[in-house]
Amino acid sequence: MASAAPAARDRKRHGRHYTPPALARFLAGRLLAQVPRPDSGVLRVLDPACGDGELLFALRTEAAAVLPGVRVALTGYDLDATALAVARARDEAAGIGADWHVGDFLTVAAELGAASFDAVITNPPYVRTQQLGGVTAQLLSKQFGLRGRIDLTHPFVATLPRLLATGGVLGLLCANRFLTTKAGANIRRLLLAELVPVELYDLGDTKLFEAAVLPAITIARRGGGVDNCRYVSAYETAGDEIAEETDLFAALLGEHGGVVLHNGRTFAIEVGTLVTSTAGRSLEIGVVATDLAGQRRATNRRRAREPETVWRMSHAGVDRWLAEIGAATWRTFGEVARIRVGIKTTADRVFISDRWCDVEPAPEPELLLDLITHHDLEPWRITRSRDVRVLYPYDRTQSQRTPIDLHEYPGAAEYLRANKDTLAARSYVGASGREWFEIWVPQRPQLWQEPKLVFPDISDRPRFALDRSGAVVNGDCYWIAVPELAELPADAERLAYLLMGVANSALGLRFYDAVCGNRLYSGRRRWITQYVSRLPLPDPGSTAARAIIELAREFVDGRASGVSASVELDERVAAAFGVCGG
Ligand SMILES: C[S@@+](CC[C@H](N)C(=O)[O-])C[C@H]1O[C@@H](n2cnc3c(N)ncnc32)[C@H](O)[C@@H]1O
Predict the structure, then answer these.
(1) Which terminal residue of the chain has fewer beta carbons within 10 Å of its beta carbon, N or C?
(2) Quick one: which H or E segment has residue 201?
């Protein structure tokens, strides 16, 4: 069947990533598994952004098998007349007689009667704020009661619950980001407000979908009691050698997880239930406080900083483990540390180079500061592979952002003026009341010279390192200024080693996956503030924590290394939280 393959540019603007047929059939099948047989004998189904109709056709085919004798009435909307022409042609060839409409569904939705459909199947457009434009994004946020950074998926999902009859079911295919990101709270809220999620499939890096985003399928019912929502995830794993190929879709429906081979790649499938509320949180981050007042203070501080709860999978083993860790948690990283993202110049070509010696006119050497990037980070230590330096146009004797006086630095002044067109084109820098030669995220200049913990934003494993060189940290990393961890320098330093010890351990990684769980392709993870701040710390005064601090110090000084030292660390961290192994 012909397919309306749209051009790549248009694709991005309108979020046109069509659902491959096998995934469409899986989504339709899961939706139908939850749809009650209609008394009227007619199942009314909507796709509000139907493209060439793949999802609706898949649903009709699957319904013929599982709901024999039921007539399926299909309705599709799309902005794209060309795609709809393909849908119509497919419809005519199969003699279906669906209802196709060209139109902007976000405008049309309000005109449709409440409870008009028994099922909505959709892969809504995914268009980020940058592509939507700030003004449109703001209007949509206001119109649909959304918060924060939205993408076009959010208003689409907002229109749908009202259109479903009681007992009706939504089958949603969208980026899995909504499960764990701050912005995703919009979707999480919408799926919980009037709907009840009943099945969730985080399809991770399975590449079942061609778009750059990792997909998830949510099946949610309108009305009815609170169910245990089945939660299945599939992510690539290094895995054991498996000889036989398995149908991944069939494996996703299995009662228990396991490891399967699909298209030559090995996937770990985990099966559990969805935890959406804060109820489980006390398990994750419970505190053993020395006195009640201390406990109250810690709890209040935690509430103030905790971002809205992300969705995570629960299964008995993990829950028990988290409860044990929670009981032994003194504070979370977020409670003791201020986590900062590195600098962002938004003109790296001008500000950052590893060949300043070739640059003419030459900025003064005292303004060219060593720059730590994600390439330089190993667990525990910084190993700078290239002499990358940033032209840092601030007075580092000042605690607040104070740009240099260009008269005092004629070399830098000449160099920056030679690049003035590029720099001044960053109109947002001027609009925020800064000089045209400033960088976008400068931090507090005086803090750079302090010891700091640095870790990369994206990494398959934790790589928390200690820097004492006074270098600046690039925007592809995060950092924590050690003196800010505690009032007494000795306490601050001990806490820094403890943070590193927990973060770089097997327990840290497992905790991260269980609680934060935002994974990208090939096991890479995002170590952003929101997640790192949830990692737990044992009481630094305990004997077990002191043992971690001691070993972390040895790693940093180069006195410990290798597998046996790592195993020793994993054991010490596990012991500090009262759990076995790593
Ligand atoms: C991700 S594609 C999904 C298409 C099809 N349902 C599928 O799964 O293959 C999203 C579709 O949304 C359409 N679209 C974008 N904005 C829209 C709007 N405001 N109203 C209706 N459709 C829209 C695009 O033209 C595109 O066909």
Answers:
(1) N
(2) strand 195-202
Mutual angle of helices 134-144 and 153-163, in 10-degree steps: 20
Distance 11 CA to ligand 1 centre (A): 10
pLDDT less than 70: residues of the chain: 1-15, 211, 226, 238-241, 277-308, 517-519, 521-523, 581-582
Task: Give the whole-angstrom CA distance, residue 560 versus residue 566.
Answer: 9
Asked if residues 305 and 405 have their Cβ atoms less than 8 Å apart, the reply is: no
Q: What is the pLDDT of residue 241?
A: 65
Task: Provide the b/e sequence for 308-336 (b: ≥16 CB within 10 Å).
Answer: ebbbbbbeeebbebbebbbebbbbbbbbb
Residue 77 CB–ligand 1 contact under 6 Å:
yes
pTM: predicted TM-score of the whole model, two decimal places: 0.72
Beta strands in 363-483 (DSSP E): 368-372, 389-391, 452-456, 458-459, 465-467, 472-473, 477-481
* Rounded-to-integer distance, Cα 513 and Cα 270, Å: 12
Tell me, what's the pLDDT at 516?
73
Pairing of strands 258-262, 265-275: antiparallel
Q: In whole angstroms, give the CA distance from residue 85 to residue 204.
A: 33
User: Residue 246's Cα: distance from chain center in Å?
Assistant: 29
Contact 144, 161 (CB under 8 A): no
Instruction: Name the residue at shortest CA distance from atom 13 of ligand 1.
Output: 49
List the residue whose alpha carbon is closest to atom 15 of ligand 1: 14
Specify the pLDDT at position 448: 95
Note the pLDDT of residue 265. 85
Q: Which of 11, 17, 50 to mutate to test the pocket of ligand 1 (most atoms within 8 A of CB)?
A: 50
What residue ranges do the domains of the chain occupy?
A: 13-200, 285-329+482-576, 339-481
φ, ψ of residue 267 to 5 degrees: the values are -125, 140
pLDDT of 11: 58
Structural fold of domain 13-200: Rossmann fold (3.40.50)
Q: In the chain, pLDDT over 70 holds for what percent of residues?
A: 89
